[in-house]
Amino acid sequence: MDDQQRARELLPCPFCGYAMAEEDGAYQNDGFVAPQTPVWLVTCPDSDCNASVSGTSKESAMAAWNRRAALRAAPEARPLDECHEDHGPGVWWAWDSERSAWMGEPAWIGAPGDSDWPGYHTHWTPHPAMPAAARPQGVK
After folding, report:
1. What sign for the dihedral angle of Cα 83, 89, 91, 92?
2. Fewer CB within 10 Å: C terminus or N terminus of the chain?
């Protein structure tokens, strides 16, 4: 397979896994914006999904569909006894040892020394880093 063929192939839908075929490729849609600005779309054919990306050309729409963020492995939850105040605040989880499952409640963020420490969380993960930037409100 050459680079041109590879560029025409679409990866499966990143949301539902639908296996895209060549005929599911980008199509032009002039209904969204002024006719002088053509919009090319790739849309998942699964009517329960309808994920969609756009581009200013067929190639850019297909490239946007095929672009995937690198997946990061979820951090391993560490037991309470491995926590030290030098770690700073963490994301705390409650493990139900009788069911061998997470209790299913929202995580608590803080440290065991905090005055509002609930006292029943059993495991923690490091608090994620602050985002590098924020999109202004109202901008899509």
Report:
1. positive
2. C
- pLDDT-based confidence at 90, cuts 50/70/90? very high
- Structural domain harbouring 115: 78-126
Q: Which helix (H) or strand (E) holds 8?
A: helix 3-8
30 has pLDDT over 70: no
Asked whether residue 135 is assigned to any structural domain, the reply reads: no
| Contact yes or no for 78/123 (Cβ under 8 A) | yes
User: Would you say 121 and 89 are in contact if contact means Cβ atoms under 8 Å apart?
Assistant: no
3-state helix, strand, coil split of the chain in percent (to 5) is 15, 20, 60
Token couple for 7 = 């560029």
